[in-house]
Amino acid sequence: MNNASTQRRVGLAILAWTITCLIFFPIFWMILTGFKTEAQAVASPTLFFTPTLESYVEVQGRADYFKFAWNSVYVSVGSTLLALLIGIPAAYSMAFLPTKRTKGTLLWMLSTKMLPPVGVLVPIYLIFRDLGLLDTRTGLTFVYTLMNLPIVVWMLYTFFKDLPKDILEASRMDGASTLQEVLLLLIPLTLPGIASTGLLSVILSWNEAFWSLNLTSSSAAPLTAYIASFSSPEGLFWAKLSAASTMAIAPILIFGWLTQKQMVRGLTFGAVK
Amino acid sequence: MATRASGRTVGGLRSLSLQAPAVTLLLIWMLVPLGMTLWFSFQRYNLLMPGMGGFAGLENYRYLLTDPALWSSMGTTLILVGSVLAISVIGGTLLAVLYQQDFFGRGVARVLAISPFFIMPTVSALVWKNMMMHPSNGVLAWFNGLFGLPAIDWFSSYPLLSIIIIVSWQWLPFALLILLTAMQSLDDDQVEAARMDGAGPVAIFFFITLPHLKRAISVVIMIQMIFLLTIFAEIFVTTSGGPGLATTNLAYLIYIRALLEFDVGGASAGGVIAIILANIVAIFLVRMVAKNLED
Amino acid sequence: MSTLQLKQITKSFDDTHVIKGVDLEVNDREFVVFVGPSGCGKSTLLRIIAGLESASSGDLVIDGKRINDVGPADRGLAMVFQSYALYPHMTVEDNMGFSLRLAGESKEARRTKVMEAARILQLEPLLDRKPKALSGGQRQRVAIGRAIVRNPSIFLFDEPLSNLDAALRVQMRIELARLHEELDATMIYVTHDQIEAMTMADKIVVLQGGEVEQVGSPMELYHHPCNRFVAGFIGSPKMNFLPVETVNADADGVEVTLPGGRPCRVPVTAGDTRPGAALELGIRPEHLMLDDEGPLEGEIQVIERLGGQTSLYITMGETLLTLMADGDVSHRVHDKVRFGFEPGRAHLFDAEGLALTSLERHHLAGLKRQDHRG
């Protein structure tokens, strides 16, 4: 290795890591602040302090943090399971029993994603009010199911398409019914794909903030809405905000790191592998 | 001939029945609210004035289209979408090239750099508002202080820019994630062949890398467009659309009309306009995806 | 007893006619090979028989019963796929026993049948492995084993050897022939490789463009191709074709003028061939002989020496001919050579590409593979 090339490599590493640190800094700072006291949090920024779990304890103690967290889990997992339940048969038929209409149907599903939620906020709000679904987990779960259904179907479709058709045909020759085909072959064989589809759906629901802010107020509010309540001036407790936020994003951040590769395929409708 | 007909229909029916739940639900989800929005937009309908109902004709639209708030919010929407797209696509491409190089701790650096995408929007907005951009206690203010510069009150001096920074911080990592993945499928032989042909790093970027990323970039633009057109939470928790209307985009304007002013008719008319705008964009986008589906 | 009849089977996808009215009889315990270039419809035909595709029209009859509307699993057939289509998440044993499991057979019954198939295919040591841990040839055997376990009335093979390397292919070919004998079952085999067809079939069905070109035993197809397509497709290297002109046609054969002007009398029925008609003469490379007195002359362009044999590629005007010569010929590239052939070995094709029938049938043309066994 000659000198110029070594210099270049070191320079590259420094550049890349500087940018990485800049991008990651707000998250790092938030996590750090969560371990400070309120007084330290608003003091002049410093890396050196005695870490304390005070804020975590306090966040968990007051404000029903767990109620919000439970709402988030309920709504995102529930909507994901529902979307998978509806999406798997649809994606199966699109991937393995394609008709002339299949492509059109897929594109139409995608186009429903392009309908801006604000455009239908008013009617959904009113329907929910009349059906008593406002501020209920059921209502929000339902919205998230439909919100993610197109992406779930698309993503499953791209994963199913990768499964050699022969294998399903062989099972048909072996006497498998459609249900057996799906349960004994399709699902076990595409489990990683189904799992990453599910995780993406959980992530999208977990982080969703438009419907949760507009359709819930207290009893069904998930973490997005809870965190948003810190925006009011009287809610300015930075350490507690940071601690609550850290807890709110930690699971999703880890999910995201784990599934980033498959997620790209799903998010780009299979166009980027 | 009988066989042919029955064979076809049975297969078609099976495929139809499997898709039915998904298609029906989405159809209802799309058509019912859409129809209602359209209907309300022609009604005089304010939740605060129950007695004032009735057909309004184009009154809501006339009111809305002559309202400077609409035009300013559309402008805000365009600036927001345009600048975030530009920042994330250009920045994402450059960073993808950088993170594709071999350097110490590359794997960890990549994971850290894409992290902001997974942060819920309310959290990232609040972190930026309170801990980064806060005029007295924020990190940026402290940083300015190191150089003896005055602290900037970001949200009152540069409200829209602040929002753009926050949203870009969330979406640039997304572009990076997609483009980096696309980059990994770039054929090494192709790069080496280009090098044999005497191409330098810059030439390789423009003639090999960029064309290879074209499809990924178009997908990034499409997805971001879908989400950016309806940015809401970031505005909701930071500026609430202000000061004045400085950071009110179309989504936020409709929210104000509907849930703060209870003007269902007016909000619906705004919704219809948002849908029309989105559809204009969608026509191009769907066509783009359809083309991607071909290969 | 398992016989299969196809009656006027057609298949269309939208406006494309893939199968254009195929009639075929498959007898009990016969090894039938569908062969043809890619896109000829041979795989589609097999999939129609399997029940994976439905015929657009026509009847499919097994043992006298019309089975068009019977599901694939209930036709009593088993199929071996080109890609093997093994279930990657199941062990070899589970792969082979899957159909029995679906049919609700007990664990013991399954085990017995799987063990029996494993014995035939020498798969016993591999039963606990997953397909990933098997070599190509082993996977192939598992796929066959999965078919055997079902004890089908007819085995279907869809290009089963095309994913194997050359050496393994030869070995599997022998093994399949042995299996056919041992199981004594009816088999239908699809391939694009005419060597597989020639070596394994009792009956070859040559397909092109969704139509049957010729059905017959390997030797019949080799010695009496009914048209130019079959003549060119069967046999390797390919048959040579020369433009010739009819001089005379009578009961003793057809006399033609070869390129270069020499006459040649081919012992075929004249039909309505008249003097002056343009015909094509087909002669296989192995039937061309170097001969200083031969009627044909050309220049050697390429020589491929295989040791025992030497292929000479000879140009004669615009035509490129292949000649299989002895391994010891000492000719060099660009040598001018004379060569000829026995007229009885030659074929004549009319303007439509149809063969003029030989006056005498080749003595092996009726040979069935079973006949080798005596």
Note the topology.
The complex is a heterotrimer of chains A (273), B (295) and C (374).
Chain A: H1 3-34, H2 38-42, H3 54-61, H4 65-96, H5 102-113, H6 117-131, H7 137-161, H8 165-173, H9 178-189, H10 191-207, H11 210-215, H12 223-228, H13 238-267
Helix pairs in contact in A: 1-13, 3-13, 4-7, 4-10, 5-7, 7-10, 8-9, 10-13
Chain B: H1 2-41, H2 59-66, H3 68-100, H4 106-114, H5 121-132, H6 139-146, H7 154-157, H8 159-184, H9 188-196, H10 201-228, H11 233-238, H12 250-260, H13 264-294
Chain C: E1 4-13, E2 16-26, E3 31-35, H1 42-50, E4 57-62, E5 65-66, E6 77-80, H2 92-102, H3 107-121, H4 136-149, E7 154-158, H5 166-183, E8 186-191, H6 194-200, E9 203-208, E10 211-216, H7 218-223, H8 228-233, E11 240-250, E12 253-257, E13 263-266, E14 278-283, E15 288-290, E16 296-305, E17 309-316, E18 319-326, E19 336-341, E20 347-349, H9 370-373
Parallel strand pairs in C: 3-8, 3-9, 6-7, 7-8
Antiparallel strand pairs in C: 1-2, 1-4, 4-5, 9-10, 11-12, 11-14, 12-13, 14-20, 15-19, 16-17, 16-19, 17-18
Helix pairs in contact in C: 2-3, 2-4, 3-4
Could you explain how this protein is built, in words?
The complex is a heterotrimer of chains A (273), B (295) and C (374). Chain A is mainly α and 273 residues long. Chain A has two domains: 3-56, no CATH class; 62-267, MetI-like (MetI-like fold), CATH 1.10.3720. In chain A, 77% of the residues lie in helices and 0% in strands. Chain A has helices at 3-34, 38-42, 54-61, 65-96, 102-113, 117-131, 137-161, 165-173, 178-189, 191-207, 210-215, 223-228, 238-267. The two termini of chain A are 34 Å apart. The relative contact order of chain A is 0.14. Chain B is mainly α and 295 residues long. Helix content of chain B is 76%, strand content 0%. Chain B has helices spanning 2-41, 59-66, 68-100, 106-114, 121-132, 139-146, 154-157, 159-184, 188-196, 201-228, 233-238, 250-260, 264-294. With 374 residues, chain C is α+β, with helices and mostly antiparallel strands. Chain C folds into two domains: 4-231, P-loop containing nucleotide triphosphate hydrolases (Rossmann fold, 3-Layer(aba) Sandwich); 237-349, Nucleic acid-binding proteins (OB fold (Dihydrolipoamide Acetyltransferase, E2P)). Helices cover 24% and strands 33% of the residues of chain C. Chain C has nine helices and 20 strands. Chain C is elongated, with a radius of gyration of 24 Å. Chains in contact: A-B, A-C, B-C. At the A-C interface, α8 and α9 of A face β6 and α2 of C. Chain C: It comes from Halomonas urumqiensis. Chain C: Residues 4-234 form the ABC transporter domain. Chain C: It holds the Pfam family OB_MalK. Chain C: This is ABC transporter.
